[in-house]
Amino acid sequence: MFTKMPYGGDYNPEQWDRATMEEDIRMFKKANIDFVRVHIFSWALSQPDEATYQFEWLDKVIDRLHENNIQVGIGTGTAAHPAWLAKKYPDVLRVEFNGMKRKFGGRHNSCPNSPSYRTFAKRLVERLVERYKDHPAVVLWNVSNEFGGACYCENCEKAFRVWLKKRYRTLDEVNRVWNTRFWGHTFYDWDEIVAPNLLSEHFAENRTMFQGISLDYARFNSDSMLECYKMEYDVIKKESPDTIVTTNLMGAFKPLDYFKWAKYMDIIAWDNYPAFDTPYSYTALMHDLMRGIKDQQPFMLMEQTPSQQNWQPYNSLKRPGVLKLWSYQAIAHGSDSVLYFQMRRSRGACEKFHGAVIEHVGHEHTRVFKEVAEIGQELVDLSNTFIGSKLPSKVAIIFDWENWWAIEYSSGPHADLKYVEQVHKYYEALYKQNIQVDIVSTESDLDQYEVVIAPVLYMVKEGYADKLERFVKAGGYFVTTFFSGIVNENDLVTLGGYPGELRSLLGIWSEEIDSLALEHKNQIVLKSKLGQLQGKYDCNMLFDLIHSEGAEVIAEYGEDFYKGRPALTVNKYGKGEAWYVATNPEQEFIDHLLMEICERQNIKRVLNTPSGVEVTKRMNDENEFVFVMNHNKESKTIQLQGAYEDLLTGQLYQDQLTIEANGVMVLRV
Amino acid sequence: MFTKMPYGGDYNPEQWDRATMEEDIRMFKKANIDFVRVHIFSWALSQPDEATYQFEWLDKVIDRLHENNIQVGIGTGTAAHPAWLAKKYPDVLRVEFNGMKRKFGGRHNSCPNSPSYRTFAKRLVERLVERYKDHPAVVLWNVSNEFGGACYCENCEKAFRVWLKKRYRTLDEVNRVWNTRFWGHTFYDWDEIVAPNLLSEHFAENRTMFQGISLDYARFNSDSMLECYKMEYDVIKKESPDTIVTTNLMGAFKPLDYFKWAKYMDIIAWDNYPAFDTPYSYTALMHDLMRGIKDQQPFMLMEQTPSQQNWQPYNSLKRPGVLKLWSYQAIAHGSDSVLYFQMRRSRGACEKFHGAVIEHVGHEHTRVFKEVAEIGQELVDLSNTFIGSKLPSKVAIIFDWENWWAIEYSSGPHADLKYVEQVHKYYEALYKQNIQVDIVSTESDLDQYEVVIAPVLYMVKEGYADKLERFVKAGGYFVTTFFSGIVNENDLVTLGGYPGELRSLLGIWSEEIDSLALEHKNQIVLKSKLGQLQGKYDCNMLFDLIHSEGAEVIAEYGEDFYKGRPALTVNKYGKGEAWYVATNPEQEFIDHLLMEICERQNIKRVLNTPSGVEVTKRMNDENEFVFVMNHNKESKTIQLQGAYEDLLTGQLYQDQLTIEANGVMVLRV
Amino acid sequence: MFTKMPYGGDYNPEQWDRATMEEDIRMFKKANIDFVRVHIFSWALSQPDEATYQFEWLDKVIDRLHENNIQVGIGTGTAAHPAWLAKKYPDVLRVEFNGMKRKFGGRHNSCPNSPSYRTFAKRLVERLVERYKDHPAVVLWNVSNEFGGACYCENCEKAFRVWLKKRYRTLDEVNRVWNTRFWGHTFYDWDEIVAPNLLSEHFAENRTMFQGISLDYARFNSDSMLECYKMEYDVIKKESPDTIVTTNLMGAFKPLDYFKWAKYMDIIAWDNYPAFDTPYSYTALMHDLMRGIKDQQPFMLMEQTPSQQNWQPYNSLKRPGVLKLWSYQAIAHGSDSVLYFQMRRSRGACEKFHGAVIEHVGHEHTRVFKEVAEIGQELVDLSNTFIGSKLPSKVAIIFDWENWWAIEYSSGPHADLKYVEQVHKYYEALYKQNIQVDIVSTESDLDQYEVVIAPVLYMVKEGYADKLERFVKAGGYFVTTFFSGIVNENDLVTLGGYPGELRSLLGIWSEEIDSLALEHKNQIVLKSKLGQLQGKYDCNMLFDLIHSEGAEVIAEYGEDFYKGRPALTVNKYGKGEAWYVATNPEQEFIDHLLMEICERQNIKRVLNTPSGVEVTKRMNDENEFVFVMNHNKESKTIQLQGAYEDLLTGQLYQDQLTIEANGVMVLRV
């Protein structure tokens, strides 16, 4: 898609005078910045009233960038509607989860089902496309910005009913899938259905009295935003079919089912903002998730801060070298760009303390600018070598937004069960071993994998149990956990014994699920040593009380009235194996379990490294690139097999290498 | 009322197909289930629109149950109104404490003063009664379900003004009792009075700027719900005067003054849902409270879970034996039934993870079903022997909802003072000694008691001080605490020195009340050993600075500027004694104090047991039944005087017995 | 203004009968109470409907007080509107921060921009003034009561737009100062501007997406309340130009910019309610702030409790002697009155558990009354000697409400940065040394000071950097801290490098600001010993990474990647010095730093005392009065130079004195 990795980021020259823009461009060149994203929040400027569009300012910006060989990603600007629109067409304003109608303010503030919003957003994009579709600088279109939130207004309610009709056809079917006989909720007319929020079924954001309606509203809300995206996408593609259209996503962002979105995005783009205490493996998981939502295609790192954020409680500076380390971490997991929010710090409003390539001091003699410029130079030198390359993987982790919503809407069995935390635990075990992982959806083909892991696969969609059975029969290894196989896609329990449709695959029946406060621990006791798995491990939270129905019992509970009952089982099934982890173990257990399973499937690490040194591999037809990243505060030595060249320095390594604290190496085998 | 303890519980066949019902009935019989509660949330099903009622489905259910000798408690179904009603008659929807008008959703969602709700609820009940009053299976009517919540709509405001007129006659009297001269709140017109909530006098649920109006609104809200109950009660009784009418209560449920409700209930019924960390003594107190609200009559345990709940943060399984232990605990405290929520787990919506007799697996080969069936068999064998028997008691604890409301609405002196906690502390001291307690209202006759305890009797209603004085004069022992005797029933301070109307009975004047953060402790120092009372005990929270006006000072404070001033006093008064505990002591002090007072009144324990072994006694004309319950995780040995037969096993015990962990014995003397 | 310190406080005889008032007066005389504040919340009583005013009751009260030589401060009564007004003219009701329209209830409940409120409030005051302006008892007018809160109704929105027009003239200027190009917020019509609250720009009380509008709304809200105050002030002064008009303030009360208010107050009055855990130095700071807002004039302690409060979570009694100690602490910091809330405890409503001179017991034989009477006698004997005297000071601390608002609206860099906490830390260092401090505004003249301290001077208003430069050039010592010099008065960043306009004065450039969770500490390491400053000190929160541009580096960071970079600098500038503290140090560092700076400027302590013994000095033309206050729980001995007479006892001290626990001495040199 690109031949050189785009380098640059968000640029808002409309906040500054002309002379400042010239100064910006001078500095961009010093840093080898060759791509900027403009017009992200410029609707109000480009359309000062209903009848008037004024793009002359934007013409000048884009022309001047073009004259300086800087490519442009053009934002459609629809993420924040103008104040005049809100005043004249209040249907653009959202109704909040608590039922209050909003007034003008904030951002991403438009109701996705507002007729006025859709009309005016479309008109704006039409004019933008018409004007810039042939501009040689414009290489990418960014629809809106960080779609998110939700609305509960009457227009949304009406649209929800239409959505339901489309999905379920009859009200009888709605009543059935929501189980409305419970608590006498039967609907006899579509118009009786209202949005589920604090005024109706919810008593907290994540606590609902009717899971079915809340789950469908989550789907509907994601779809409504997606409709807005697609509307703009279609407008752009109609006029400019070959351009790249995308929008910037946000990793494991709960409200939007990005697997559905990815189908309509030419390339995935996402904004990476780890908090001051985010584990490195979590960031890696986010990159892999973003790669995964579009079939493992390379993606764009659309935003990251060059120095610090402003909206965290504590906004630590990136330590020297960390900007480079994290930029290469993105590349190492599949990014084909390094982009920042933002080029120049605003003088006012809520992001003025967000880091930028050009700080408030206004010149280039800053630590941050120097680090930015250094990366810019490397990308010029290098990035054409590995751009477009893929990450080979034999292991997949299933990630499913609908499952996530359903688990966390559930009333019981345990308030502290968080889906992404569970996914992260299994991911981390592989991350520590430098075993590459693809994050896949329930629609993904599993044939290419040796091991498939589905942490807390609570919701098993129609046909999915069959797919898993076929995978295992054919020799695949499948791992799943407690609270899996419980419901279908309408959050209706699969009757006949847990884990429902997975029961025969796993060879177990889970009779009961105990749920204890987290401080109350039990143990997983191995019946005999199995690779690294030996002795006992702590576990807590949920405890399945299972009966083996053919599965081999590998480990048992160590305490309580279910002492001696199975805690870890494996079921031979066809040529493969289906593993079941009946409780929430300490991390070390999962580390050892997955190590064992990978060894059984002969899955190798990219490299063997000390703790905190991350390694990934990207490949293209010619080469293999090994990215080595040292997240430690001290240098580390790694044993090598074979010879490697560090593309960043040209240095050759044989047998071993030493990587400095926060260091990065890009090795060519 | 019953000749055999009803055994069974909530049953919702309308959520399932016909074949499932047949399977249910088969299993009911296996478990000796002979009573189910139906139609609890079936309004929407039974009345699909304003003009149509359809009860054929219910006919079939009840007939089929009857054919299988299963009795039916029929719910009126008015706890959750249908969606069509909410849409067509929005006055049925509540306005929340924060002032927002609700939409359709949730349960117990109707405004109690909604004209439409009252009209349609009444019509439904009329039709139900007409249809089922003579059905031989129907032995009980359950009005609505777990009444609760509150509404702040305009209809409620209007009804509140009517309620006020009835109670106070004139606006002048309202102004007087609310002390509206304070902060210039004088009302000159009834219509100026609005509901006290977050938009008017409250800044939090329990924090009001005008205690008088909030207290009256609490009374009004309880009365409004009671009006709804009584409306249905009257409809049923008019047609079916001999049937049993009740509704299921919820223990120490703050919003409803159950002493008032009990007058209109043929039998008390309540739902027992201890949390994962509820002390056993607290559950015992709740049973005794439910027995107490209707003059110590036996009550119905209307709901408990056979295994786990779903709406707690952590929903632990009942350990093996615990279901039986807790079922007998209910009986031991006066229940004449053992009933469950629910017969079969729902497939969908918010209670699908709530335990049931028939689990999602759908068959009877589960631990839970087996435990249920075992109890069922025992009740068939035994329950006719002790049904209807009473619990003899010489000790009463006063419990008063209005006092509760007033204490916790109070602005000062201490944010952490919780009424039920204080009641529980005194209850627990007696519970540990196996001394039986009646919980009584301020209207109850005290003559039959030797000891009366009134923890934090903040509100002293008209005439109540006289009643207490008569009780003590006649030889009774009275115990009360700090923050007692402060106000009258309008929360107006009794002037002339605390503890107000109790001053002469107690023989003290409390000049000041110190209030310190809980971690700031003082001591109660005994002047000399008195039975178990000796040395010193910690105390905290509130500290009365009292002057004896005739009372004997038994203990003093150990620290601070009031070191040496009285902390525990006793006043000889007529033939009795009035004790005053001037501060909030550690539990052991209360244990020792009540042991001493009971010994002075020669009140005996039912049995002497090790810690964690609870004992109660029920009596009828023929027999005394001693219930022994071991809440410990290990077996315990108890010394006996005399011979006992365990009705559950037929075993005879002399001198001593050993009871297993979680064990239950029902001994006949 | 007064010749004898007014002694007494809030009095609400309208809550009681006539006989009670006579009893009150009898007791007032026993306690030498000679001033009471009446009619504070009596609007509803004095005006029962739109057409009727009834002041006869007030005539009687004031006449009877006058006959007993008790002076009267008359409240205008407009702090709580009557219920009838709210019903008939609902525009008087506020709209809350969450967007909900309030109903009748609470206090200070009127919208400040309500036309009806302003009309009726004015009419009431006109009638009051007309009636009482010549009454010999009336010596003071108290407008409303504890102004506070905010409103977000449409009338406020309209008034806000008018306020903006007046301040900024054009919408272009509004757009500029709010930087509305950010996030496309440009306004094209005044009516597009809405109040910033939870429905528009805020996501929490202190968290806004547009600092500019929120900051201006804070200014506007303070000004709106001030308009209400001024309206009443003008009405009173027009008829009674020589009377004293004031309103009771609340110390560091964030919503109101008291420096602006003080200009329209004849004397500052404030209500001192320390919480159970408020440090003594914080109370001292509040007194000094209240003295400071009106150019160090003596002020009135308008309210304090004689015993305990009721609205804290824990309302501890004032220990014996503490009432006197705290009363003299007020005097020691500039108060010319000692007044209480309240004379007699209410029987009902939310302040019935607030302490009073006359307790619920109703007689004078209480500890509290005796302490009150003792102070009353002392003030009769003594207060004419030191009334009106001033506190000499060579040190000033700058306090700025607008800076406070801006700092705490800021999104980043650190959620835990609290302005008043920072001011208090620097104040406390001086307080411990008995070095007197004036709290000054940014408008205050600095010439009289040797040292000026500006903790976190984030906002530097137009011309203020010049003023500071002039001050230092002329020999002044200036101390400021991290996160200073960042923005102008519109919260727009001063470009060109932090600390912006203070850069040349301080001789530094701060390149970056690190922000870490509070538990993450660094150290300030002294390059060499400097007075008490030596070794190293902990610091946390924010860390400027500075380059010296001429300043001398006194101390460096001890850790992290900026180890060795400046943490404390001093810049010689003209004849003075400008100090910069680049991080948030532990208290001891600030203690030592300010000790060093005061020594350099030869600023002396009033007295040298052990920890916990506070000393201040008031002076008039004849005498110096040294107030010695022992906050310790044990007696302390102090070395003296020279001879002192204790005015309270007549005792003479030479060389040394011993002061008892909670003791007070007023020494004349």
Structure, explained:
The structure is a homotrimer of 669-residue chains. In chain A, helix 8 (211-239) packs antiparallel against helix 13 (401-409). In chain A, the strands form 5 sheets. In chain A, strands 12, 13, 14, 15, 16, 17, 18, 19, 20, 21 and 22 form an 11-stranded mixed beta sheet that branches. A 6-stranded parallel beta sheet of chain A has the order 7-4-3-2-1-11. In chain A, strands 23-24-27-25-26 form a 5-stranded antiparallel beta sheet. The relative contact order of chain A is 0.09. In chain A, strand 14, helix 15 and strand 15 (477-481) form a beta-alpha-beta unit. The mean pLDDT of chain A is 97. Chain A has 17 helices and 27 strands. The two termini of chain A are 25 Å apart. Among the domains of chain A are: 157-207, no CATH class; 270-382, no CATH class; 395-600, Class I glutamine amidotransferase (GATase) domain (Rossmann fold), CATH 3.40.50.880; 613-668, Golgi alpha-mannosidase II (Immunoglobulin-like), CATH 2.60.40. Chain A is an alpha/beta fold and 669 residues long. Chains A and B meet through strand 16 of A and helix 2 and helix 4 of B.
Brief characterization of the structure:
Three copies of one chain form a homotrimer. Chain A is an alpha/beta fold and 669 residues long.
Features:
homotrimer, 669 residues, alpha/beta, Rossmann fold, 11-stranded mixed β-sheet, 6-stranded parallel β-sheet, 27 strands, 31% helix, zinc (chains A, B, C), hydrolase (chains A, B, C), EC 3.2.1.23 (chains A, B, C), GH (chains A, B, C)
